[in-house]
Design goal:
Length: 71
Amino acid sequence: YGPSWDAFFDCIVAVVPMPTELRLVNWQEFAAASPREMDILRRVAADYAREVPGRRLVLVPEAATDTPSAA
């Protein structure tokens, strides 16, 4: 496989055993630097949910990944 979104999709659908939910965190910097690629990743996530019922890629908002401060 080469470095492409098609290869990534093939891997998560058929090659690599995936968890029920794959949570992607800290993706905002990637989205800001590569908006076109981020659009593709969003489409891949939607296609994955349709292709593999019961499994999904989740883009976790930054606020949801923050840990409470120990004040």
